[in-house]
Amino acid sequence: MKLTIDSTAELLNGVDMPRLGLGVWRTQEGDEVERAVSSALNAGYRLIDTASMYGNEAGVGSAIRASGIARDKLFVTTKVWNNQQGYDSTLKAFEESNDKLGLDYVDLYLVHWPVKEKYKETYRALEELYDQGRVRAIGVSNFQAHHLEDLMGACRIKPMVNQIELHPLLTQKKLLMFCRKEGIQVQSWRPLMQGRLDVPAIAELASKYGKTPAQIILRWHLQQGVVTIPKSVNEARIRENADVFDFELAPEDMVLIDSLNEDRRFGADPDNFDF
Length: 275
Hints:
alpha/beta; Aldo/ket_reductase_CS; NADP_OxRdtase_dom
């Protein structure tokens, strides 16, 4: 299948999710996030990923409305933060997020982290929002296989997405295989290792294909069926990150990148976090 910037992944419920999007973590509310989202939409991105914890949902919504792009052509994700988790508090958190976004609905709503003793009740609220048609799809973020098994033993609606840290130094093959088996779409955050791109093997591939290291890594994500949301506030970099559809990594080069795994996290461990 030839990938393009318009390529989508079909979720368990038939909803189509763009394969490439813009992440806006640590993007300042106001002009900065509005410029970043506007640049991404102008470059052909149709997926924007935010969260209540990011503090920039209002700017994301403002840029979306200003774009003039039909709402049904866009895919907007947000997430419930850890201190908002629980059934009633999650329903309240969603109303606050949706008010800030200023949209009629959210395309994907996620449980941001697997907070012990809370994520099942939190997810039950997501199921209620889904039943009401307030969200088109629901899922989780930073869930390990054992979290997913525990949740699926209690939920009515299987999570459609699991958004996790995934990159060449943290390939997450076992979790990726588990999610594929269950039909759960994997999405990667921090796909570019927070800019730590000085990996010799990646540099060699960049030279071989006439691409940047970032483009090689993003193409690796896309070719293994992972939705990815690189973050940038730089218009040129946003466009560069989208310029990954005119080449294809050879199978042996996919294997080479897979072999770089060090199980190295740049973010928190989902089994050991304190926020």
